[in-house]
Design brief:
Rossmann fold; 11 strands
Length: 287
């Protein structure tokens, strides 16, 4: 059984990205710029934004972090996004979700110019992805495809099962897996699926993004399957300094006994998300 090391793959790709940034600076005099907007002070969002800023600096990119108070209005936020759309120093715009309840996620995402939508969330980029046109691929799903390739699995003709149908992971990863370049046969399972194990036992690859621990267990797997665990769940644990430990949506102990390869939590999908964000920002600057 192989542990799919997301940190190692992210490090390899970040080396390539830093080299790409360096050559863009020296050949064209262009520094890729990413603006990250954080509204309010959600602790998880703050730590994500800090990690993104650090990754940008390490890659040699311009990072502009904009922190706004929780009482910022939707109109003010949309107006700021539109200003950044016009700023030639900024090639990527990311609004950290969730935003406070009085602001519509949709209104903010719709305001981002598709050519600066490095999260791949705007309807234009989602539509382009679905019909196979050039676009920014959403970061976590794109990172998942890279992890499956890194595991050594050739997806052509394989059966992939995706558990979870969120707009951020489940639906787009199912779409990417079924593209001609990838050529997997895809089954999308969710809370309305009566017996998920019926599908997972026939799967060569299982991507689990349900947001619930123990959604996938070893007895649900075909021997040798590749498991990509997108979940990040906090479980109370008095033995840990913070009083909790992080686990995925797959039961690692039982799944690792059956799987051919599996991502750990943490250290699997997580490091890839920010890496693919940098990848898209560099690509945007090149365009």
């Amino acid at each position: 059984m192989k542990i799919i090391d997301g940190k190692q793959l992210a490090q390899n790709l970040r080396g390539e990205i830093a080299a790409g940034v360096e050559s863009l600076k020296s050949e064209k005099g262009v520094t890729p710029g990413l603006a990250v907007i954080l509204v309010g002070d959600n602790p998880a969002s703050v730590s994500y934004v800090t990690a993104k800023e650090k990754a940008c600096r390490e890659a040699g990119m311009l990072s502009r972090e904009i922190r706004l108070p929780a009482e910022t209005t939707e109109a003010e936020l949309v107006s700021l996004v539109k200003e950044l759309n016009e700023d030639p120093a900024i090639h990527g715009i990311l609004v950290q979700l969730p935003v406070p309840k009085h602001i519509s996620d949709k209104a903010v995402i719709d305001a981002i110019a598709p050519e600066k939508d490095v999260d791949g969330f705007t309807p234009v980029n989602v539509g382009r992805m679905m019909i196979g046109e050039r676009c920014f691929l959403p970061c976590t799903p794109h990172g998942i495809i890279k992890l499956i390739e890194f595991s050594g699995m050739d997806l052509k003709g394989k059966h992939a099962v995706v558990i979870g149908r969120s707009n951020i992971v489940g639906k787009p990863v199912a779409a990417l897996l079924s593209r001609k370049e990838t050529n997997a046969t895809v089954t999308l399972c969710h809370t309305g699926t009566p017996d998920i194990s019926k599908f997972t036992r026939e799967a060569d690859v299982v991507v689990v993004a349900a947001g619930r621990p123990n959604t996938l267990t070893g007895d649900m797997l075909k021997p040798g399957a590749v498991v990509i665990d997108v979940g990040v769940n906090r479980i109370p644990d008095a033995t840990k300094p913070k009083g909790f430990r992080l686990v995925g949506d797959a039961d690692f102990d039982s799944c690792s006994k059956v799987a051919g390869a599996i991502t750990p939590v943490p250290g699997g999908v997580g490091p890839m998300t920010i890496t693919m964000l940098l990848w898209n920002t560099l690509e945007s600057a090149r365009r």
